[in-house]
Amino acid sequence: MTKLSGEWNNEGIAFYENGQYEEALKCYERALELDTNFIQALNNKGNVLKVLKKYDESLESFNSAILKEPKNAELWVNKGAVYYEMDDYKHAIECFEEALKLEPKNTNAMSNKGAALANSGDLESGMECFDEALNIDPLDVNARINRDKLKDFMDDLS
């Protein structure tokens, strides 16, 4: 029996979770051969390509997904994460801001924007983003860790 695109995608997720990235990539590509509009497979393909440090291909995958579903905040966050990995904080921030336009209470986008701002040298704005993320969700571990690290860094500067 032939696998459906969703089955290939799920198999890719299992490989990804086991750290078998090349196998995961093959599964996502098989899913997309069957359904070129499968947003989650495009998203997953972009994420695995980011892990493999194939940043240009990762951005292509996210761009393809965003063309099909421009109001999907997760895609914008993940695209921003690729730029962040590339130390291209300007483009990362733009992507996180797009996500926040779509979902103003997206703490992942807010915290990532804070990290990109801080890494680009705008420490105060980075801190504001972490504080905002924690106002939205006081239990957001990433925002709390990032805020505390930045606070320690800023304290060391003074």
Protein described:
By secondary structure, the chain is mainly alpha-helical. Helix content is 79%, strand content 0%. The protein contains nine helices and no strands. Helix 3 runs antiparallel to helix 4 and helix 5 packs antiparallel against helix 6. The relative contact order is 0.08.
For the record, the CATH architecture of the largest domain stands as: Alpha Horseshoe
Helix-strand makeup class: mainly alpha
Low-confidence stretches: none
The 3D shape can be described as elongated
| CATH homology group of the largest domain | Tetratricopeptide repeat domain
Q: What's the main sheet like?
A: none
List the total number of helices: 9
The total of beta strands comes to: 0
